[in-house]
Model the fold of this input.
Amino acid sequence: MASPAAQKRVNVAVSRLIPPVLLGAVVYASYAVTKPLCIDYLLHPLPSYNRVPRVGAGAAILTIYYVLLIPMVVTYLHLYYHVLWRPGYLPVGDQKLRDEQNDDDEKRPEKSRRRRHRKKARKADPEKTVQSDTDVERGAGGVVSQSDLQLESFYTQDVFVCQQDGRPLWCSTCDQYKTDRAHHCRELGRCVRKMDHFCPWVGGVVSETSFKFFIQFVVYTCIYCTFALIVSAYFTAEIRRNTGAANPYWCVCIGLSALFAFFTAGMTLSSLQMGIFNITTIENLNRRTAVWTLAIRVPEYMLDRLWDTESPWAPTFPMVSYPPEAHTSNQPQATNPPAGERHVFAILHTQPGENPFDLGTPFKNLQQVMGHSIAEWLLPIKQSPCADHSSMESHYPFGPVVTRLKQEAGLMPPGDGAVPPTPHSGRSQPEGNTQT
Ligand SMILES: [Zn+2]
Done:
């Protein structure tokens, strides 16, 4: 059995190989429909067919075929471009950058001596290396590390996905915090924003930057293949009835178009389902049991009374505050921070199977991927709205589940349609309470 590394290399190699194979299939089908079918059989029938020309049918088939081919090719090129050049990678951490630099050096013979020298230096002082690794992850020593800067992009928002202690999710391979819904792609060795799946058919990873074009591509390919299948099957049946023979080009065309029509119809249905539920293929794997842990901002006006443990308003949910205390570590504080620039979050949990990103209706969910106008739905123009991260509220819009969590915890401001906050209205406290 192949090792994971070998399997990874095979997957990447296959993903690079398949696009030219697909191109070959399209060129072959286009030739089969244009020359043997439309020109040699319908427009100017070869003498062996012994038929009168059917110019109208030939012209109509040629026109429809190429009209259907254009959107398929354009969306594929758009998809391929985004998969290769705008894949939606998260930046990597300092340590990962250093490791990659070392790997690059190893590939350059002229730098081999310097590399060996650095390796020796590390060997001579193993404690220093360990300390350095720890510092990068925990931000110790009061130095503003890259991870501190990354943290800021989380705690300046209103809601983010977190661990049990309130810190954002961490990728130890990339050495950085993972934004909501990011997933580490094994094949590419990088965290990808809202990664959907690794797709060898398009040469890489389908993510928030390319999922819309992926849906458009499978829909247009399904329509194109279905048309090619109907046309080649119809005239194959006709010629068999009249002459008892079959055209080999049309037969291959039937096989190819049936295969890809069936495949893309399945992909269309599953992709639309993901869009309708606002989940990714990866999130869908444990959709029915997943429990999301969310850090939800506590409004400023509630802070003082929440930290008073004698008060009837004292919450039953754990809380964390940012920014982390510089003199200890980047562990979030669990005490009432001084007034001013403080960001306090309640750590709340969804029920198993709830999707906090579900915006409430299938149409609103699909709009997050496809856009807000008919042109955006049909044409490969503009990025998906979910790939716009300019909002200060969260990395991705949250839906009614988060609204309900806020209401239950008494975190909604008065007059916002919320149930009035009552003492101890928060959800039951999970294990690992970080409040002191
Ligand atoms: Zn990663």
Q: What stands out?
A: Residues 171, 173-174, 184, 190-191 surround zinc ion (CB under 6 Å). The two ends are 51 Å apart (CA to CA).
